[in-house]
Amino acid sequence: MNLVSSFVTDGASVNTGQKKSLWTLIENDRKTDEIKVPIMKIWCSVHRSALAWEKLTQQVSEVSKIIETCSSIATYFHQSGVRTKELKIIAEKENIKYVKLPKYFDVRWTEFTYSLLVGILKNCRILVKYFIFNRQNNIKDSKAVGFYTILTDINKLKLLCFLADLGYLYTRFQKQIQSDDLLIFDIEARKNGIKKKIVTEYEPSTDNTKIALKEIELHDKISLGKTKSTRNLYVSENRTFSSVRNDSIEHIVSYLDLCLDVSEWNDLKPLACLSESIIDEDLKLCHDKICPDFELLDLARILADKPHSADVERLISYYNVLKTCGRSSLIPETIKNSLYIKLNMCNVSKFDPHSAVIKWLSDKNRHNKVHPLAKQQEWYEGVFEEAKYSKTTDEDLCIKDISIKF
Predict the structure, then answer these.
(1) Which of 1, 7, 163, 214 is the most exposed place for a label (fewest CB within 10 A)?
(2) What SUPFAM superfamilies does the database record attribute to this sequence (predicted)?
């Protein structure tokens, strides 16, 4: 425990609570063992960014409804193999590549919603064709009618495109804050970068974007809506795309500031990039904040902590891929060695196998058997270059033998 300088968890109360959480138990154990090495408790930045996206999809009602509708469309086809087959047939006729719609998955919510929106947009034309085919054949299906109405609404299509673009930027941002070279000082710069991209990319303005689908008639539900009663003239039942877009931008920017608050590390900013102009007072302030009773030389080990738990998440993913139902008899030592190689091995192009081969040969006496007939196989000449030379030498030997006999 005295070698641990930090630990990163998600924001669950079982980890960050004040009474019997993981953070509190570790602090109590360190006090009992009288460990003086300071420790930093960090709430994973990736989990916090995912929380900001989740709040956006919950608080903005139009965004929540459109994601729920897209998920219902995916479930509509997952529940019936016949519908999926008919959809693929339409895709072949229209010469459009069919993209498989993802199943509902709420753990990685950002990744799921982005892949769902992209899948709906790529399949939009064949989806609408499928629902038109149902109407022409008098197939009574209320769900299909509702899906057709939504997918042919101009404002809904604009919102789908906007959310897909926003999801692309956000997933890229989440990959950036999972980098191995990311420190606690870099979070604010990455956060300001994604905020600037979102705000500059979608500046509040009057929207004049035109959307059209080939051979499909679109409609504007808001302009063709029913006339309101007198008492509801000043109540907005359906907001335009521009208002929903601007509201979504304001929400995601404010949630990023709220969830990725790095004000607790402001006093440590002088250590982010040391220069000759730094004064002793700034260094002393950083020292007093982290470890007032600890040597300054050991401060670097603490400040090199990562603000995310991506390494642990990768390890769990590797473990799930490695130990499947068909490989359930793997012993813990084999799993440990395999995971160690997976995480620490360099690129194959830079790997030098000599030391590993020598160690493998020196462990015990290996069975070394020469297979002369293997060189006569058809595949041998196409794989190994020395087969050409061995073939010519063998032919020369045969000619010499024949000449000697004669």
Answers:
(1) 214
(2) Ribonuclease H-like
* CB distance 50 to 110 below 8 Å: yes
Q: What is the pLDDT of residues 128-147, one digit of tens each?
A: 889 888 888 877 788 888 89
Angstrom CA distances, 49 to 70, 170, 177, 186, 399, stand at: 23, 9, 9, 14, 77
Indicate the length of the chain as a whole number.
Answer: 406
Angle at 317 between CA 315 and CA 321, to 5 degrees: 115
Rounded Cα distance, 26 and 35, in Å = 11
How many CA atoms does the CB half-sphere of 229 hold within 13 Å? 2
Q: Which neighbouring-strand residues pair with 9?
A: 43
Give the pTM.
0.72
- Amino acid 188 reads E
d(CA 207, CA 220): 14
pLDDT in tens, 279-305: 666 666 665 655 554 555 455 566 667
Between CA 247 and CA 219 the distance in angstroms is 23
